[in-house]
Structures are given as C-alpha cells and as structure tokens.
Amino acid sequence: MSAKESTEERPPWVAHFFASADQQRSAANFGMWLFIGQEVLFFSGLFMAYIAYRWLYPDTWLSGADVLNKWLGAGNTVVLLTSSLTMVLAVRELELNRIKQSVRYLWVTVAFGFVFLGVKAVEYASKFELGIYPGAHYEAGEVEGMAGLFFGIYYTLTALHALHVIIGMGLLAWVAILVKKEKVTAENNSLLENIGLYWHLVDLVWIFLFPMLYLVR
Amino acid sequence: MFDAQFWLPESVNALAGGVDELFIFVLWVTVISLALVLGAMIWFAIRYRAGSGGPRGSMPTHNMALEVTWTLVPTAILGVIFFWGTRDYAKMSIPAGDAMEIRVMGQKWFWNFDYPDYGVRLQATPELDEKNETEGKPVGLVVPVDTSVQLIGSSTDVLHSVFIPAFRLKKDVVPNRYTTTTFVATEPGVYDFFCTEYCGTKHSNMITKVTVLSKPDFDAYMEEAQEAAEGPADGATVFASNGCAGCHQVREGATGGLGPSLWGLAGREEALNTGEKVLADDNYLRESIENPMAKVVAGYDPIMPSFAGRLSEEELTALVVYMKQLGPDAGGAQ
Amino acid sequence: MSAATDQNQEPSYLTASTGWKSWLFSVDHKRIGLMYLVATTIFMIAGGSFAGIIRAELFTAAGDLIDADTYNRAFTLHGSIMVFLVIIPATPAVLGNFVLPLMLGAKDVAFPRLNLASFHIYMAGATLLLISMILGSFDTGWTFYTPYSSTTVGPVAWALTGVFILGFSSILTGLNFIVTIHKMRAPGMTWMRLPLMLWALYATSAVQILATPVLAITVLLLIVERSIGIGIFDPTLGGDPVLFQHFFWFYSHPAVYIMILPAFGIVSEMVAVHAQRPIFGYKGIAFSSLSIAIIGSLVWGHHMFTSGQSIYSSVLFSFLTFFVAIPTAIKVFSWVATLYKGHVSYTPPMMYVFSFLALFMVGGLTGVVLGALSVDVHLHDTYFVVAHFHYVMMGSAIIAYIGGLHHWWPKMFGRMYPQKLANVTSVLVFISFNLTFLPMFLVGSRGMPRRYYEYIASYQTLNQIATVGAFLLGASLFVTLGYLIYGAIWGPVASRNPWNGLSLEWRTATPPIEHNFHGQPTVSGTPYDYPVEPGEAPGEAVGVTK
C-alpha cells in the first residue's frame, strides 16, 4: 500500500485516481495548455487563408484595411488587455483568500467582455450601413478588387473570435459563482487558473488579429 | 507479370518515356522486399515455433550493423526512386517553347477543345462522339503525331481532370485559372480520355477519346473544321455539341433527366417553382439558355449552367428553331 | 454474465454496477471503451453495407443496378462513415481507452468525465451524419472538394457539422491520453520502460491534438461558404478552390497516421507477447513513432501532385513522402526480427500479426510507387490509389485492430473465444481481402478512374473478381464478430494472463475490477523482460508486486 494513499495528506477534492493534489493540479494545467495549443491551430488555419489571399490581392487588402476603424479596434485591444489584467488579479485575490475581491474582479472581466462585444456590434452595424457584407453579398463600392473576399475573411475571423469571447464570458461567470460558493478555493484553484488561461488566449488571438486586419500597410 | 504491358496501357507519349521503367523497377523492389521480409517472417515462424527444437540462446534486441544496414539500404533505394520520378516528372511537365497550344475547357459533363492557331473549336460530348464515330470522323481531342502539344486547361464550373492513360498524362482543370500539361504523341490511333476528378452525376460519362492523326490528315481535318465553322449553324448539332442532351430529353414520351424534357415544350404553358405559369415562347426559350436561374421549372433543381457569352447569336437562334421542331406538330426531332 | 473476480471478491468492472444509466454515464475508461466498441462495430457494418452496394454495382461495367446519384452517395457515405466513425476512433477510443490506464498502472485516465464527454460528442457527430443521410444524403465524396461541395444541392451542412463535432471527440481523447501518459505513470516506469503501445498512442494523440483543429476550421469554412458565400473557395469571388485541398489534406494526411500509429503499437505488443520475446529495437520503434508523426505532418501535398500546384511544391512533398517511409520500414524489420529465436505461438493475435505484416508491406510499398512523381501522374485518382489505401487503412489498421481485440478480449470479458475458429477465419479474411483489392491495383494501372459508376468494358473481369472477394470478406468479418460475441458471453472462463504478457494490464484481475488496481503497482523492468515461465508473470491477484 503506497504512503500516498493516507487520508491525512489527501484533501477530499482530489479524485481517487490521482496519487496526490499536486498530480491532479499538474494534470489539469497540462491539459489546459494542450487545449489552448489546439485552439491556436484552429485559428491559424484562418490566419493562413488571410496570408495566402493577402499575397494574391495586396491592393484589395490595403484598401480593405483602410475601411476598418482602427480606433475602435485599438480601443477593443485596450479593453481586452485590461480584462486580462483583471483576470490575473482575480486569481491573485483568491490565492490570498480574498473571495469577495476575487469574485468582483471576475465580474469586472465579464463586463469588459460586454464592452468588447458592444464595440464590435457598433463596428459591424456601421459596416452594414455602408453595404459592406461578406463575400457574395458585398454591395458597397468602397473597396476595389476582391472586396467581398477580404470582408468575408474579416467577418469570419472576428466573428469566430467573438464567439470565443462569449464562451469565455460564460466560463468566467460560472467560475465566479463557484468561487463565491467556495467550491473553488485558494488550495483548489485549478479551475480558476485554467479558465484564466483560456481568457488570456482569447486576448492573445485578438492581439494578433488587430494589427493583421486593421493596421496592414 | 514484370512486363509493362501487363500493368499499363500502351505508351505513346515521347515525354513519358521513363514512367513505365520506373513503375517496373518499383514493382521489382516491392516483390524482392516482400520476398525477403515475408520469407524471413515465415522462416522464423516455423523454425522458432514454440516447442520446436530450434537453437535459441540469448534473444538479441539490438544489432548495430543490421539496424544501420536496414536503414541505409532502403534510404538509398528510396533516393533513387525519388530522383528518377522527379527527373521524369520535370520532363513531362515543362512544355517545349514551340508547342502547339490547345485550350481544354471542362464543363459538367463534356469537354471543349479550342485550337487558337486554327480558330477551330472541337467539342466532345457523348452524343457528338457517337455521331462522329458513325460518320467516320475523328472523335474527341484531335492532335497531330510527333508534334509537341501544350494543353492549357480550365473549367467553367467545378474541378475536372484530364486523364489520358496512353500518354501517362493527367492534370486537373480548375475554374478561373489555367493549368498546363504537355505531350508528344508518337503513334497514330485512338486512345481513351477520361475525366478523373469527381464532378457529380455524370462524372463517369465525361469521357471521350484522343485521336492522333498523321500530320497531313490533321491539317486536312483542321481545314474541314474551319469550313464547317463558317457555315450556318445547325440546331441539332449545336444541341449535341454543347452537352444539352446530358440533362434534357428530346424524344416523345421520354422521362427522367436532370432538366425538363424539351419535347412539345415550345408554345405551351410551363409551371415555375414560384407557382407562376409562363408561356414557353421564343424569348422564354432564349432566356432559359442565357439566364437559366431567372425561371426554374417546378420540380427541378436550379442547376443549369448559363451559356451566356458562350453561344453566338446564330447558334442561339438555331437552338430555338430546333426546339420549336420538337413537338407533335412539327415532325419531331432526329 | 459471469466474470472472474479476484481474491478479495471484488466484482469486475462489468458487474460493479448495473442498469443502462451506469453504462451510459459511466466515467470508467473500460466501460467507455466498450461503448465505443459497440458503436464502432455498428458503424462498420453500416459503412460496409455501402461498400457492398458499390461492389454490387461495379460487378458489371454498365450502370444497371442503381442510378448514378445513388452510387455517388454510396461511395461518399462509405468513405465518410469508415474514416470518421470507424477507423479514426477504433484503436484509440476502443483499445486505447481500455488498455492505456491499465498499462500505465493508473486507476483511470486523467480526465474521466472528459472521456465520457468525448464518447457522447462522438455519438452526437454520428447522429448528425445520420440526419444528413435521412435528409437525402450528400454526394461530394468524403473529401468534399470545392467548388463541387460548395455548390451542390443537398444536406451537406449537416454532414459537415457532424464531422466538426466528431473532431472534438478526437481532440479531447488525444488530450486525455497525453496528460495521462505524462502524469500518471506507475513509479519506476520511465519513458524507456513504457510499453510500445503507449508510445504509439502518445504519438497518435499528439497528431490528434495538432491536426484535427485544422479539419475543424476547414469544415467550418466550407459551411460558411455554403451558407453565406464568403468567397474563400469561390473562384468567381477571387477565392481558390485548390486552397481547400491544402486545408483538407493538412489534416487528412496526418489523419491516416492517427489510423496506423496505434495499429503499429498493437503489433509491437502482440509480436513480443506471442513470441514470448523481448522486442527487437525498442528505441527504434519508439522514436520512429514520433518521427512518423512529425514528418507525416509535412507531406500533405502528395495528394495534390496533379492539382495544378507548382512543380517545386510537388518535388518537396515527394521528397518528404519518401523520407517518412524510412522509420516505417525500420518498424517492420524490427517486428520480423522479434520472431528470431522467439517462441512463436500460432494464436489468433499472432495470425493477425502475420496478416498485418504481409498486407502492410504491400500497402506501404505501393505508397512508395505513388510517391514517385512521374508515376503518380498516371496513377493518381485511379483504382491503384483505392487499392493502396485499402491495404493500409483496412488491411493494416483494421486488421491490427481486430488482432488487438483478439489479444485483449479475454482481459476485457474474462472469457475466451474459440481459437481454432479464429485462426481459420483470420486466414479467410486474409485471402478474401487480397481477392478484393489486388485486382484493383491492376485495373487502376490500366487506367480505370476512381468514383466511376460505370466503366468501359475492358475493366469488367477484374471488377468481378473484386466484387466476389468483397462479399467473402464481409462474410468472414461477420463470422469474426459472431465468435467474438459468443466467446464474450458463453466462452470458457479465461485465466488472468492467458498469453503470459508482462505489461501491467496482465497483472490486474481478468476482467479488471472497477478501479483497476488495489494499490499502486510499481515496475522495475521493461514489459518485455522475457523469458518468463508461463504462470510466473507477476500479478496483483497473486499478491506479488515486482
């Protein structure tokens, strides 16, 4: 019988098939990194398409980027970066066992998510008013060449990213409730840490998206 | 079994010279490897069967010399195959500077061949091919022997692929783009020409032939084709050459087909998929050829491609005239 | 159903709890493996039926049995079901799930609830494919090439969504396995003491995690293209239909390594155990799995030599394709060398090893034929390719999977199937397989294109031989299924370690208890430390920990 099985050392939230709390935490963390790795590959497919077509239609790409509102985009970048900060603070507060503050930071992060989505909604609406629809439905005259294709990729990339933001907000809300109920605690904080990782990924994807789409020269 | 003729059709493309030899070489490599590996497997399985008296002693788990050998020898053989294949591939793919250009257009489900040097278009639909064969005319893609030919291919709709087994030639044709391939036919004759990229319902029927003629015969045929192009268009021929019969029946009582039957169509009322009814007059017939999505007959899918820009004014009129003959009043179609 | 119980009278995982809910919501990796077994078997029968339809039509050159559209749907469904619902999940999700924690000395995988979710996600994806079949089916081929797939009428989006969802199941299983192998090995089990099955599953899982997301985005883009028309593959809007092929094969080539790497793992285990011998060249086999996974991710363009891509791309892809053949060859030689001075038993698993070696050599070497650029120009999209991939996908991956089922069946059910019948049937499977697919090499090199509903008369005789073979193959597989089920329910009770294996799964009870081990087993040697007398291999039930 291994000494690791003795109940004194083994908190109740450690699953029976793990030898120790450390093993459980380390496994959860590693698993999350793998999941993030595959999400990166998921987005990279679209990034590759963007790069391929940019190489083929450089003029369309330049004039398309001009139509996009870089100020709103930059604003959203600041919003997401700040939300990553509040996410980190939420983790830190829980580490210090300050549950109320941790929960507050989590909800602030969710709020930033709403701001991001709101700005995106404004952007999309302003484009639709000009007749800038994706692909075959493009009706504006503003961009030369393969405009429909540029905006098709723009909308697909940003919509996919926004979907990940919404999922992240849902996860944050869920974990905020769990922290409040003390199901996620300072010792047993894997869930919070890993959701934090997911949120940072969502932020990171935007950090690549923004210059690539909006600032191309 | 180690003969190229057993595995491959006759080879009549001067540029594909090394292909058959490489195929047979790899066949030998395969057979010898199989013999060695499976021979060893069977020998060991018998000699070292549980309970047999074969000598055992220590069970080796490593042998540096053996492992290095069985890594390097396959590497060398694979290297040979790679270089050989690449060298011949380059030969087959790069057209000669003075190659005769033929433009190939793939469309569901037939082929067009344009000869820019002669101003001639040849078409290859199953109906036209049959007609040409019965009349003793060359079928399909017609090319001169011993001449460097460059095929520049494109598609009007989905991916197709030009496959001529006797030339060891294959190239996909892609919409809105050109792909090229080249050959030098060495033997007059008639060879198979398949479409080999799946393209829908009649993919297996999108086949025709390559007819290789001697140079004087080829020149004579091109002249004949030029004269025919200048004469008045015959509706039935335009119909057969553009693949219309692939989807539309023309005989009385014929059913089935991806598109409505044309028998008795002209002059009657047709029900559309919007619920409206429309009279099938001359304008309707013409519009259905140039802009088929404008009015889709009830019960059919909106899949007819547009022929706008692909038929001359004369050919359009000839088709309308032809369709008006497809009815009980006008003596019927051929 | 009875099951062998261990000395402490603890029930086996099969009887530890009862009722359909205890199975459908079980987080026990062994029960999840069995559920995958039932599902993949049913889907294999479905996919096989479509193959039957195809071969029946192709018995004659004319299209006289069904119409062209039905035929096109039949080959599309045959491919989609076999690839996505059968071969990709089979070994990892059935055998991997069952055996991996046992071999590691763990009580379950790292994320058991995620494992259950993987199974239900898989069933959800399968359901969507089923719905698309009910709504009239799709006819794009399992490869969904654009522009045909972006413009054809039909419930394509349902099928694509099903594939998207199935991808998640694959990714999550791979993720689970990698974390489990990294974090939950028994004390003393260093990387160089891992059973080769686990090296194989590790490499497979890496490919699953890294390649499947690209399939997901590909399929998603096609769905968006069909519904909104963003233009990414539409040539009239500036898109490139060939880009789809790059996207698609970037996943689908590594996918074939997802299919074959676990099969290699099974063969390594079976050949060592049934020859009672340490494996030859352990490190070579272990590292070749990793190098195949890596190099195999770089060769996707060899499916596109005639697509119009540049000559230079083709040359590069051809080079890498030959490169990946080298680690593969090393494995084959090592397995044969493992028979040398062994004690070879002609048990059903060993019969499947023999079949595998023969069929995989043919499949692999014909891959070399296709990797040669000049020859591929002639053979691409002909029946030669169809024969090649059936030799590697069915003749190797599925044959190894079936062999693996024979190897671990007593451990899974505590009972033995009739071995003589199994041996005879394995020979029938081998012969009928060759009867079906060998003629296809010939008819393909002679020029018969793929996906042809009717063909020119000169190809008929060879097609008829193939059709006869196909129905014999189907029959022998049904016999196999029959005696395996019979054995699981009514066969004689099996001993704990009928094949005298040394890896940890043979130390547990047969069938294992729900939590696999009572304590934490430890290891101090490799799983191939033969010779060991039968009955002297360590086991938990006997109270010996090595």
Please specify the SSE layout and strand pairing.
The complex is a heterotrimer of chains A (217), B (334) and C (546).
Chain A: H1 21-56, H2 58-67, H3 70-95, H4 99-129, H5 147-180, H6 190-214
Chain B: H1 4-7, H2 17-47, H3 64-93, E1 100-107, E2 110-115, E3 120-124, H4 126-134, E4 141-144, E5 148-155, E6 160-164, E7 169-173, E8 179-184, E9 189-195, E10 208-213, H5 215-230, H6 235-241, E11 269-271, E12 277-279, H7 282-290, H8 313-324
Chain C: H1 20-24, H2 29-57, H3 68-104, H4 112-134, H5 148-151, H6 156-183, H7 196-227, H8 241-274, H9 282-295, H10 311-339, H11 348-371, H12 373-379, H13 383-413, H14 419-445, H15 460-490
Biggest sheet record of chain B? 5 strands, mixed
Continuous helix count of chain C: 15
Over the alpha carbons, how many angstroms does the gyration radius of chain C reach? 23 Å
**Order of H and E elements of chain B:** HHHEEEHEEEEEEEHHEEHH
Helix content of chain B: 25-40%
Q: Summarize model confidence as the mean pLDDT of chain C.
A: 94
* Strand percent estimate of chain C: under 5%
Shape of chain C: globular
**Global outline of chain B:** elongated
Summarize the structure.
The complex is a heterotrimer of chains A (217), B (334) and C (546). Chain A is mainly alpha-helical.
Give a written overview of the molecule:
- The complex is a heterotrimer of chains A (217), B (334) and C (546).
- Chain A is an all-alpha fold.
- Chain A has a single domain, classed as Cytochrome c oxidase, subunit III, four-helix bundle (Four Helix Bundle (Hemerythrin (Met), subunit A)).
- Chain A contains 6 helices and no strands.
- Chain A is elongated, with a radius of gyration of 21 Å.
- Mean pLDDT of chain A is 91; it is low at 1-7.
- Chain B has 334 residues and is an alpha+beta fold.
- Chain B folds into 3 domains: 4-93, Helix Hairpins (Orthogonal Bundle), CATH 1.10.287; 100-230, Cupredoxins -  blue copper proteins (Immunoglobulin-like); 235-324, Cytochrome Bc1 Complex, Chain D, domain 2.
- Chain B has helices at residues 4-7, 17-47, 64-93, 126-134, 215-230, 235-241, 282-290, 313-324, and strands at 100-107, 110-115, 120-124, 141-144, 148-155, 160-164, 169-173, 179-184, 189-195, 208-213, 269-271, 277-279.
- Chain B has a 5-stranded mixed β-sheet with strand order 3-2-1-5-8.
- In chain B, helix 6 (235-241) packs across helix 8 (313-324) and helix 7 packs across helix 8 (313-324).
- With 546 residues, chain C is mainly α.
- Chain C is built from 15 helices and no strands.
- Chain C is globular.
- In chain C, 68% of the residues are buried.
- Mean pLDDT of chain C is 94; it is low at 1-7 and 541-546.
- Chains in contact: A-C, B-C.
